[in-house]
Amino acid sequence: MKTTRIVLLILSLFAKLSHAETITIVADAWPPYNITPNTSSPGYIVEVAEEVLSNAGYQIEYIKMPWNRAVKAARSGKFHGIIGATKPDAPDFIFPDNEQGVSEYTFFTIKESDWVYRNITSLENQLLGVVSDYSYSNEIDTYIQAHSDNIKVQVVYGKNPLEQNLNKLIANRISVFIDDRRVTNYLATRLNIRNRIREAGLVSRLNIYIAFSPAHEDSNKLADILSDGMTELRANGKLQQILAKYQLSDWSKTPSQN
């Protein structure tokens, strides 16, 4: 009798899973926020989404693709959302009230350089590496647009744009690039080149989110679920458990220390 109950319980769980709606979220790899799909460490924002949305009866599918493709496809409604977006990245998307992290956009150079970013004029005589369709700050975005047709700004595309910029920096094909501080240090450490680069000035601190497609009618609902879920995960300690797995701490408590 006990065995029968267990079998029925398992069948019931499978039935619920089979009827759960799948929410597909997409982005290029941006560790530790989102890394490799279908692994034990897909990135902490992916794990947060899985924890919150699975409790609400959804299944999560994470697909890695170039950022510009991810934004365009989600905007059209092909996918439900994009991971690691700032509000300037996709102003027409639906954002949760509570952010899923904070991005510190920082300039990087080779270790031997003494260049430091102080203001936009600092970029004169520099070869700047950026990623297609990323938004860094109003001032930097305007500078990129103004120089997009010459060699002073070099744009990379694809699934691993940061790795491309790191390789270009080491090879002296660019003199400086801008990207998220945590992401850059994480990847440079994994590539065993952390001691060959240096931070050269913070540009901006922006909240990052899973932003939901403006083409999906349930996007507001999903954003509310995720926002409320962030509050609950922070209160019950689950958020810190997920962050600790990636050697991070809660940005709301130590905003400049992660």
From TrEMBL:
Signal in keyword set: yes
Pfam families with a match to the protein in the record: SBP_bac_3
InterPro entries in alphabetical order: Solute-binding_3/MltF_N
Keywords for this protein: Signal
Signal peptide location: 1-20
SUPFAM superfamilies assigned: Periplasmic binding protein-like II
Domain Solute-binding protein family 3/N-terminal: start-end pairs: 26-86
Similarity section: Belongs to the bacterial solute-binding protein 3 family.
Protein's UniProt name: Solute-binding protein family 3/N-terminal domain-containing protein
